[in-house]
Structures are given as structure tokens and as C-alpha cells.
Design goal:
By secondary structure, the chain is α+β, with helices and mostly antiparallel strands. Bound molecules: zinc ion.
């Protein structure tokens, strides 16, 4: 599970420690790399990389190579024409000899930047297909000028996919009541209906199995000879060429493993990629979650299932990172007290974990982002996802602080606070405490929230179906919000002011009820799981606190503002909703979960929506942000071993994307 970046975090100018501010002044680091459509591309620093050992740098180098090698897999998972379209548009772009200031060329460039960002022809967040602003005739004419070997034989088909708004309109459709598979353009299913897929898995699943594999995690489901069939992502199977390159680099990385345990983790991952056996993936996940002594760590595989309308198949991703030892003292204090938090959570004791196992939480520095974590990336991750592994072996939870820091520094002085925050005293509270409470919120969400609670025996972990992701994020967020106001955080030395939590509460409600709407196009509903979760919590609290006027929507000079009148009561409301969401999860109460989502999380008030869009547009802030990676260059000794690895931050967005397409595209011919 992952915690996505909350829009306003990047938008609200927060106070930095004097140290950070000074470092920033002395050493001008240009965070903003590119800006187009609704997107801003940033770069991030990798502080501490130079101080790692040569061995660790070698390990990181090969792991980053294994990370970039999987890029095409995600592109193909996201849509079956994505790789062909990327190749087509890149070819036209790089061979273009006409006027580069022309409207058509500029529109083509913008489209290319968008599909790079979306890892395909759909927006990474809204899932809607990008609308090209260049003409079909322009594209077709430019194609005729390409060398013959670069002219696609299926240009008519590709043009239809690019230009016809009715074709592949949505990557993941979540609309209740529709066939979610046939109406979704993602390439995880072909020629099968939702009913057929559900019947297939229901027949396959053994509900008495206490350690079930993650069904469908690494497969594409198709119809072969009238039978529903899984095509497995593995060496010799689907995506074999890319997986071979991943395995090759993992094998090299293994030579630089920090210890035996880490070498075993890599071995198991290689075995899984070779066999495609999901039981082997579980073995690997257990080894991985138990490896808590290594400083370097990584994810590489089919992990999160947000891109699957049924929430089963994992999107390919990789993040390579190393522990920020100093900042990790914060999360260690939390995980050492995990049992206390579990025992005091405001849920029915039947749904609490009697023994919280090994919640390991750390603050990390990302060294590379790839696949589903690139260019848009989460700020926190909690894995593995398999419930039984989490229950028996615990989970690893991370906060990616060099990423949150880049967001914050890049957004300094955006004018957002002045526009949307109700008064000066609230702004001051946010200036002072939002950076730390936001980070603590992420820590609590990932390190304790997702790991808390338990299912009643026999409850299917997929019982909440299409609403599972939203409700799980809701649960983790509520756990974090509830405890953010707890005196325990002061006792643990994580906060120094009992009022600090109000900064995060205000931002959360403001975002959930208002400012996150800037990401939604006029007339559209809220669809993405994290956005739904924030809306659900905020709207529910607003409605249930209404008789006591806990949250108020006030109008000042024609503008709507959020006013929170009773923060203590708001905390209780968060606790009450947490109790209900945990019950829904523990009992697998699909109807109750669906009703909450449908009532609070989906529908947008169009008047308020338009107001937010209008006020927001005047600030000229990009609603979405993502990152380019640093470039790592190894230096070899005479025996071919890595003697050092150089890091460079200067590559721009276009150069990086074209380089990746040129040098790391095993799936395009
Ligand atoms: Zn989460």
C-alpha cells in the first residue's frame, strides 16, 4: 500500500529548519525541471549517497539498472497500444525538421510529455485518455517523412486509439454497476468479462487456505479456446525480455549485497521472476520483511493493484533506497510503541491485533524511482500487501523524506495559504507545524495505520471488492489523524506542542472538502482511491459534526472557507469513523462500505468545484508533480569491480525520457 502525496502538501509554503534554508541558499539547487499541462516535473537530491560504502554504491547501481529495465512492462500493462504509440510519437518528435515553434509541433511535444508522465496514453491520476491538440493529418504527414523502418504498419489503428475519444477512453473504470473489465482500457485482461474473471477466481480460491497466494498478481487474463487463462509475467513468459534484463542486473547486484540475508532476498526474487510462482513471491516477501539490518533496500516487482479495476494484478514498479538513520529515530519511537497504539485504538477490541508483529518503520532516501513510482511517486509505502504475511511476519513501512522535502522546497511561496486558509493564526500554525505533522501523519498512516486491526476468521480479504482500496486508505488515514492529536506523541518527544496537530487537521479537511477538487475536471466525479478516502473522511466528519458546528463552511467576500470550531470534537469524530471502517473491514461488510463511499466520497458539488478551480487557476500551480531521476555512472577498477559511483542531477525531463526509451526498451522492437 502506498501513501500518495496530498496535493496541498506541495502547495502550502511551510517553515523549514534554519539549517535546511541555509543549505538551500548556499547551494542553489534547481528543483523545477519542466512544466506542461497540469504537471510540474521536479528533481530530488539524494543526500548521503556520497557517504555510503563502495559496496553499497555498487549494490545501488545495479539495483537502479534493474529498476529502469522494467519501464516498458508498466507501459504495456497500462494499455496494449502504449509502447507503439510512444515509439511513434518519439520518432516523429526526434526526426522533425519543420518549424519547432509551430502550434502542431508544440502540441505534439506536449502530448509526448504527457504520455511519458502517464506511462501511457492515460492520465496517471484521473485515468482519462489524453486529448491530443495536434491534428491527425499533421501526424500522418510527419509519419510519411520517417525512414521506412520507422513507419508503423498499423498507423490507422494507432490513429484511432490516439484520436477517437470513444476508444480506450478510461484506463481503469470504477463506475458502480458497469462491467469494470470491458470498460477499462488497461491491458490486464483481454476478451473476458468481469463475471467470467470473478467466476474463474472464485473457483480457484480455497477459502480455507490461511496462507493464500495473491491470486492474479503477476498475470494477464485472456480467453484461450473458450477458457479463461492466465498468462504469467515471468522469464520465458509474458514480458520475458524485460524480466531477463531485470534478473541480469539483480544477479550483479547480489555480488554487492550487504549481508547474507539481503543476498537471500535477491536470490528469492530472482527465483520468482524465473518461475512466476506466487508462492515463491510470498517466500521472497517474508525474507524481505525480515531483512531489517541492511541499510540499502529496494522494491522490484508487481506490487500495487490500484491499476486493476478488480484490484488483483500488480503494476510493475521499483524504488531503490537507503535508510536515513538519523531521521529514522522518529519512526522507531512509533514502532517500539506499536502495541500501545493498537491497544488504545478506538475500535471494537475484537478487531484489534492481540499482538502487533514487527512493524518496522524507517525514513528512507530514494535513489531511483521506476515503473509505477515514476515520474509520479508515493511519499510513503507499506509492504508487503498480503494480509497473512503482514499478520504473521509484520510489514515494512517507509517515509521517503528526500521526496517530501523536494515537494516542500519547490512549493515555497506559492500563494496557496493566502488564498485558501481562513486566517492568519491558522496560517501561522501551519507554517510552524505542518511540515512535522505532515511527516508524522505519513509515518502513522504507513507504520501503524495499515498494519493495525485484523480480519475476523474466514473473512475474504477481497470482500470489499472495488471499494477495498478506498476503504483501506480511509482506515490508515483515520488511524493517523486520530493519534496525531494524542498526548502520547508529546510523551514520545515527537511533538513539542499539544496544539500542533491542528495544523494537519485544518489542512486535511480543507483538502478533502475543497482544494483537492482542483484535480478534477468540471463535471467529473472523484475516482482515485486516495482522493475518495480524503473526501469520505472530511465530508463524513462535516455532516456528523454539523449539529455541534464542528466544521463550518463560511463565506468571506464571496469566497468559501473552511472553519474548524472544535478540534477536540473533530478528533472524536475521526475515532468514531475509524471504529466503523474497521468493523466494515474486519467483517467484510461490502454493502456498508459501498454505501459510505457512494454517499461521501464520489459526488462533487459543482458550485464549490468551480469556485476552487477558479481561485486555483489564478495561482498558476500545477496540480500534479513528478520527478526525474539522478544519473548514476559507475567507475570500474581494473578487475571490472565497481570502485565508485558518481551521481549527477543535471539531466532534464525530455533527455531522460528519450534516453530511457533508447537504452532501456527491451519490449519495443
Ligand atoms: Zn496507504
Amino acid at each position: 500500500m502506498r501513501l500518495k502525496h496530498i496535493a496541498t502538501t506541495a502547495l502550502i509554503a511551510v517553515a523549514f529548519s534554519t539549517q535546511t534554508a541555509m543549505a538551500n541558499n548556499n547551494n542553489k539547487f534547481n528543483y523545477v525541471v519542466d512544466r506542461f499541462a497540469d504537471i510540474e516535473v521536479l528533481r530530488y537530491k539524494v543526500p548521503g549517497f556520497e557517504n555510503l560504502s563502495t559496496r553499497q554504491k555498487g549494490l545501488i547501481y545495479y539495483l537502479t539498472e534493474a529498476a529502469i529495465a522494467g519501464r516498458d512492462i508498466l507501459w504495456d500493462q497500462n494499455g496494449k497500444y502504449n509502447l507503439s504509440i510512444r515509439q511513434l510519437i518519439e520518432n516523429v518528435y526526434t526526426h522533425f525538421t519543420g518549424n519547432k515553434e509551430s502550434r502542431q509541433y508544440k502540441a505534439l511535444e506536449k502530448y509526448l510529455k504527457l504520455i511519458w508522465f502517464g506511462n501511457g496514453i492515460h492520465h496517471h491520476y484521473s485515468m482519462d485518455k489524453f486529448v491530443p491538440e495536434f491534428d491527425e493529418t499533421f501526424l500522418r504527414y510527419e509519419v510519411t517523412k520517417l525512414p521506412e523502418s520507422k513507419q508503423p504498419s498499423n498507423i490507422d489503428e494507432l490513429c484511432k486509439v490516439i484520436f477517437d475519444p470513444t476508444v480506450a477512453a478510461k484506463r481503469v473504470n470504477q463506475a458502480e454497476g458497469e462491467d469494470l473489465i470491458t470498460t477499462s482500457a488497461c491491458n490486464l485482461y483481454e476478451g473476458v468479462t468481469q463475471q467470467q474473471v470473478e467466476d474463474y477466481y472464485n473457483a480457484l480460491k480455497d477459502t480455507t487456505d490461511l496462507t493464500p497466494i495473491s491470486y492474479g498478481l503477476n498475470t494477464r487474463v485472456t480467453m484461450v479456446d473458450g477458457k479463461v487463462t492466465e498468462q504469467v509475467y515471468r522469464l520465458g513468459g509474458l514480458y520475458s525480455e524485460a524480466i531477463a534484463r531485470i534478473v541480469d542486473n539483480l544477479t550483479k547486484a547480489r555480488e554487492y549485497a550487504e549481508n547474507e540475508k539481503q543476498a537471500t532476498v535477491i536470490d528469492k526474487l530472482i527465483s520468482y521472476y524465473k518461475s512466476g510462482d506466487l508462492a515463491m513471491f510470498d517466500d521472497y516477501s517474508i525474507e524481505w520483511v525480515e531483512d531489517t539490518n541492511s541499510q540499502v533496500d529496494f522494491i522490484n516487482g508487481f506490487i500495487e493493484s490500484y491499476g486493476d479495476p478488480l484490484g488483483m494484478t500488480g503494476a510493475w514498479e521499483s524504488i531503490v533506497n537507503f535508510k536515513n538513520i538519523e531521521a529514522s529515530q522518529r519512526t522507531e519511537a512509533m514502532s517500539e510503541n506499536a502495541q500501545w497504539f493498537e491497544d488504545h485504538s478506538p475500535v471494537d477490541p475484537r478487531f484489534r491485533k492481540e499482538e502487533v508483529k514487527g512493524v518496522t518503520a524507517k525514513v528512507i532516501t530514494a535513489a531511483i524511482l521506476a515503473g509505477d513510482a515514476y515520474p509520479a511517486t508515493p511519499i510513503g509505502i507499506n509492504l508487503p500487501n498480503a494480509n497473512w504475511i503482514r499478520a504473521a511476519h509484520g510489514s515494512k513501512s517507509v517515509t521517503i523524506e528526500n521526496i517530501t522535502q523536494a515537494y516542500d522546497e519547490a512549493s515555497h511561496g506559492s500563494g496557496f495559504n493566502e488564498e485558501f486558509v481562513i486566517d492568519e493564526s491558522t496560517r501561522q500554525l501551519m507554517d510552524k507545524y505542518l511540515f512535522i505533522t505532515d511527516n508524522l501523519h505519513t509515518d502513522l498512516h504507513e507504520c501503524l495505520g495499515h498494519g493495525s486491526g485484523r480480519l475476523l476468521p474466514g473473512v475474504d480479504p477481497d470482500a470489499l471488492k472495488a471499494h477495498g482500496s478506498t476503504l483501506e486508505e480511509t482506515r490508515a488515514d483515520l488511524f493517523a489523524l486520530y493519534y496525531l492529536a494524542d498526548p502520547k506523541l508529546l510523551e514520545l518527544g515527537l511533538l513539542d506542542n499539544p496544539e500542533a496537530y491542528k495544523a494537519e487537521y485544518y489542512k486535511y479537511i480543507l483538502n478533502g472538502m475543497m482544494t483537492q477538487l482542483m484535480r478534477i475536471e468540471p463535471g467529473k466525479d472523484v475516482e482515485e482511491a486516495h482522493m475518495r478516502n480524503r473526501k469520505l473522511i472530511s465530508e463524513w466528519a462535516y455532516e456528523h459534526g454539523r449539529s455541534e458546528n464542528v466544521i463550518e463552511m463560511v463565506t468571506i467576500e464571496g469566497k468559501t472557507f473552511i472553519k474548524i470550531n472544535d478540534y477536540e470534537r473533530l478528533r472524536e469524530l475521526f475515532g468514531e469513523l475509524l471504529e466503523e471502517i474497521q468493523r466494515i473491514k474486519s467483517e467484510g461488510d461490502y454493502e456498508a462500505g459501498r454505501d459510505l463511499v457512494e454517499k461521501y466520497a464520489v459526488k462533487v458539488d459543482s458550485k464549490l468545484h468551480n469556485e476552487v478551480l477558479e481561485r486555483y487557476s489564478r495561482l498558476n500551480i500545477a496540480p500534479y508533480k513528478g520527478f526525474v531521476n539522478p544519473v548514476y555512472t559507475p567507475i570500474f577498477d581494473t578487475e571490472g569491480n565497481i570502485a565508485d559511483v558518481m551521481i549527477d542531477y543535471s539531466e532534464d525531463y525530455v533527455s531522460q525520457m528519450l534516453r530511457y526509451s533508447r537504452d532501456y526498451s527491451p519490449l519495443t522492437k
